[in-house]
Amino acid sequence: MNALTSIDGRLGFGAAGFGNLFAERSKEQVHQIAEAAWDAGMRYFDTAPHYGLGLSERRLGAFLATKPREEFVLSTKVGRLLTPVSNPTGALDLANDFHVPADHERVQDYTAGGIRRSIEDSLERLGLDRIDIAYLHDPDKAEIGLDAALDQALPALEQLRAEGIVEAVGVGSMSTAAMVAAVRRADLDVLMCAGRYTLLEQGAAAELLPLCLERDVRVVTASIFNSGLLARATPSRSGRYEYGAVPPELYERAVAIAAVCARHGVELPTAALQYTLRHPAVAAVVVGISRLEQVAQNNERMAVPVPDRLWSDLAAEGLIPA
User: Residue 1: its pLDDT value, please?
Assistant: First the structure.
């Protein structure tokens, strides 16, 4: 199975919630959610060491170990190693919004050795035989600087691909500039573009997406609900946008988009979920799922017919690019 072609047009499962993001979830709850997603046909699963200090990888791996390996695609991320804390206090990792004991710390490591160790550690936590896609996680947040992080990590990822340890390599980031820089300096297969190409914001459309088409780099969009602002039919002014309050101009824009959707009988979350897949550079969309009802909800939204007139009306009102 080719990992990249098999995710084309698919809805992917974002497993940050399996790491107890924002709230604690039991092992039984997580398994029930994963089983429902599998039964609904979801076959692309994304995780990271960052999510719950490895808990997401362990839980997702335990579930996927019960499924035929050739039937799913798994991606995880590199750039942050998990090292034990010498004297854990029993406090939770709430500074990063994960309800897990803060008994490990995240240590940035973009060296070839660090990238290789990250993959080895992830394989051990996952309990699986291979990782299909490895993303360099948030290189724009590197303490050594973006350029230094890319210069060290990208050749290391290319080497792991050449050795067959991973099938595909890329970068996952919320920074358009970081992703553009990565595509320009390495032979990447795929990007995870988080929040920068959505129904609300299309910052990646000007340079990044055309560059990906030119270089034959697939794009997986994530954070397509913009931290929940687009996840309800009526946007909430009191909602959260990334790491803070919703900027007034984005709230007004979301309200305007929702009004156009309503005129066409389409709920805002449905339009948000389907919008990014209209671009030829976008291969798949990953949504974070942390509650059982979200599985059926998102799959149903993917199947709702959206009239072309909705998109043309949004463009005519300057709410999306023409």
Answer: 64
